[in-house]
Amino acid sequence: MAKSKSNKHKTVEYGRYGYYFIAPFFIVFAIFQLWPLIYTLGLAFCENYTDTMWNVEVGPTFNGLQNFSTIFVGSDGSLFDTYTFRSLGATLIMWLMNFLPQILLALLLAVWFTDTRVKIKAQGAYKILVFMPNIITAATISVLFYKLFDYPNGPINQFLVNSGIWDVPYQFLNTKWATRSIISFINFWMWYGNTMIVLTAGVLGISPSLFEAARVDGATSWQIFKSVTLPLLRPIMLFSLVNSAIGGLQMYDIPKLLTTSGYGDPDYTTRTMTMYIRELAFSGARQMGKASAVSLVLFVVTLFFSLALFYIMRDKDAIREKKAIKAAQKARKGAN
Amino acid sequence: MKKKLLSVILSTAMIASVLSGCGGNGGGTATTPATDDAAPAADAAPAEDAAPAEDAAPADDAAPAASGDKFYIYSWNTELQERLAYVFAANPGMEDRVEYVNVGDSGIYQERIDQLLQAPDAQDYPDMIAFEAAYIMKYTNSDQTLDIKELGLTDADLGEMYPYTLTVPTDKRNGAIKGLSWQACPGSFMYRTDLAESLLGVTSPEEMQAKISTWDDFVATAHEIKEKSGDATRILSSNGDIAEVFRSNMENPWVDDNGVFRMDPIMEQYMDMVKTLEQEDLTQKTSTWTDEWNAGPSTDSVFGYFGCTWFLHWTIKANCGGSAVGEGTYGLWNMCQGPMPYYWGGTWLGATAGCSDKELAGQIMKGLCCDTEIMTKMSSETLDYVNNKTAMQTLSDQGAGAYDFLGGQDFIAVFSPLADNVDVSFMSAYDQKVNDLLGTQITEYSLGNKDKETAIADFKAAVAEAYPSLTFE
Predict the structure, then answer these.
(1) Secondary element (H or E) of residue A235
(2) Into how many domains does chain A fold?
(3) Residue A58: helix, strand or coil by DSSP?
(4) Over residues A232-252, mean pLDDT
(5) For the ranges B8-17, B36-45, B66-75, B126-135, the one whose mean pLDDT is highest
(6) How far is B401 from chain A (nearest CA, A)?
């Protein structure tokens, strides 16, 4: 008894070391994340840029909502017709174009790889092949595709012209939808392996007895997928959806490096929000104030999408059940 | 349930005692927690792009620049470094003090310098910086650069320079000269003599000049080259090759001293010219400075380039596929004026406000940009067109200008009259960004995706977006 007492005593005394161990994270977080976050919030309501003519910094001086008014209202007075919302649109389009096929293919592969009846051979090799693009850095892949789709004498154009499919080389990287498609494809190709691994882990977490029971009851593969796999995969699905939404809205490296000028060619149609923020803050008049305001808009948009996904993916049955239980309890109380 | 709770408590206690045991032993055993901490720190860093970059610079606070420290000179390639070697050769001991930093990419150079200048106490704060013509005025019109008089230079040192090289770095507020250049960069049209003879029947630079003396002639000649070569050769490599010619013929700068933005009519002519080249298929349609564009001089696919003094050595000669007459296209080039006189680029060197050793900065500037002896040697060995009239005259008199790369043509004789007459009134601090923004719209216009009015309107909107303090007519 005495022994356990002293043990307990020790635990309490050394407990504070736990705080020391976690302190470095919080210190780093406070300096490099929390403070910049607060500072950005403040700058968003300030006029702060560099006057290029004399290269002097103007501000930061408080100017209320002026930054936001230039973000939301275009120069001709029309709402949302601004560079900010155009780049937001481009970001969302390119995200959806890569995410929808990505999650579908990843889901399909995850189901195939975990199906106890299909039993694909050499699964490990497939998984490695699928995951491989994720290991290569974005910069390398961008340069690779830039060279592939080069105009007029890139390999793709040479192939298309020499094989007689097209008469003249095609300006892939100067055509809006071609460039957007290439960027989406690269993102899709890089990340579907990653999503597949996550979903595979999710499917493997489902008790095999459920699949067996369904099969014994004579369910088809589609029925098993629809009624067993999908509902039980919901938490993992939510995770990869939110993850992808956040990652997709912050898309930067591929479009930045793929386009010739780095400004989102052609005509800013592939300029994402983060590229735009960077341009505002570090080129031209270095408008830190407006860049901070745009960052805030990006934050709100990301928050909105994440919350929307949480809402859509909520467990409706569980909520209904809870309500039913509450109602039943109330009814019982009433009866008493 | 109770058993479980007990086991959790016990195992927690065990782990805690193991860890605290480590702590009790003193230093050298902090490995476990340290690696744990490293992970969140690494996670935290890349998330905020802007802020840490700024925070990172002043981190070197502890080591203020003392006179014994390194003297930092920043540039974006090795050109200045190679030129500085001549100064070091004449001033023993100087080289040990100087730390030459090659940022490596002219595209990010300006951003890098801006960040460095914000941290005057940092150890790697630049003492001297190289500027390109496209943005030099941003720095010389500010308090971030020093008057060369403060560095010990006098008007007597500037006598040999071409006047425009002093106009550019003059502070508009008080007339102080803030930087000096060792080179003068008038431009010309450089073309292949063998192709000119076989395709156009032209045998001398004068005849060639007659074929391209106006832009209409230039387009006609471009058609001729395309047809007679059977589509194998084009007059230019990229549509963008004509950009500098038009830019330096603007009558007004993009932004005047009152912050008013104007689009010079000649830039509309430039837009049309690019569209003609694109639509009538008169160039190889590459992009400037790409691998394919660089490969042009070594093949027969490109007839000529618009280039200036440094362009001749750094671009055409470097890419001609040989280093002596008979190899590649070496020796098969000639120069003529082209449709418009123009001027392109050049590098200036200036001292920063926080320069740690003004005397040394002055010595470097004097040696690099004023010393006739050093500059003569520099020019005769590198064939750079230096910013020193006496030096160029001496070399011309010696017949040193006859250049085997140009088939014996005297490059000094071609450039000298051009250098005297360079007019730089078109330059402003905004040039690089504005030209980039115009380039985006010109691509759209030349491909036929937009009409001219829309392209110009979009261009102006983009400029207004990048520079909110400008006013538009």
Answers:
(1) helix A234-249
(2) 1
(3) strand
(4) 89
(5) B126-135
(6) 38
Shortest CB distance from B429 goes to which of A52, A75, A261?
A52
Helix (H/G/I), strand (E/B), else coil: B229: coil
What was the pLDDT predicted at B7?
Answer: 60
What was the pLDDT predicted at A41? Answer: 92
Distance from CA of B380 to the nearest CA of A (A): 37
Is B466 found in the same domain as B351?
Answer: no
How far is residue B416's CA from residue B389's CA, in Å, rounded to a whole number?
9
**Which residues form the domain of A145?**
88-326
Confidence of residue B28 (pLDDT cuts 50, 70, 90): very low
- In this predicted structure, the answer to whether residue B472 has a pLDDT above a threshold of 50 is yes
Query: B216 and chain A: CB distance < 8 Å anywhere?
Result: no
**Residue B330: inside a domain:** yes
Q: Average pLDDT of B466-471?
A: 88
> pLDDT tens, B85-106?
888 888 888 888 888 988 887 7
Same domain flag for B206 and B281 = yes
pLDDT at A121: 81
What pLDDT does A29 receive? 93
Closest residue on chain B to A150 (Cα):
B286
| B351 to chain A, closest Cα gap in Å | 16
| Residue B26 contacts A, CB cutoff 8 Å | no
Same domain as B335, residue B198: yes
Residue A148 lies in a domain: yes
Q: Which residue has the tokens 């990419």?
A: B105
Q: Do B49 and A274 touch (CB under 8 A)?
A: yes
Note whether residue B199 is domain-resident: yes
Is A162 a domain residue? yes
Look at residue B240 and tell me if it is in a domain: yes
Give tens-digit pLDDT for A13-55: 677 888 888 999 999 999 999 999 999 999 999 988 888 877 7
Q: What pLDDT was estimated at residue B5?
A: 60
Is B45 in Cβ contact with A53 (below 8 Å)?
no
B60 domain-assigned: no
Residue with tokens 């948009």: A301
What is the per-residue pLDDT across B246-266, written as a single tens digit (0 to 9) for each? 988 888 889 888 889 989 888
- Judged by CB atoms closer than 8 Å, whether chains meet at B466 and A283 is answered as yes
Range of the domain at B242: 187-342+424-472
Calculate how close chain A gets to B417, using CA atoms only, in Å: 32
Strand partners, B129: B74, B350
Q: What pLDDT shows up at residue B111?
A: 83
B394, B440: one domain: no
Residue A10 has what pLDDT? 52
Give all strands (DSSP E) within B18-59, no chain letters.
none
Q: What is the ipTM of this complex?
A: 0.82
Tell me the longest C-alpha to C-alpha distance in chain B: 103
Together in a domain, B213 and B335 = yes
Averaged over A221-244, what is the pLDDT?
89
**Percent of chain A at pLDDT exceeding 70:** 95
**pLDDT class of B275 with cuts at 50, 70, 90:** very high
CATH number at residue B200: 3.40.190.10
Q: How many domains does chain B have?
A: 2
CATH number for the domain spanning A264: value is 1.10.3720.10
| Residues of B whose CB is below 8 A from A279 | 466
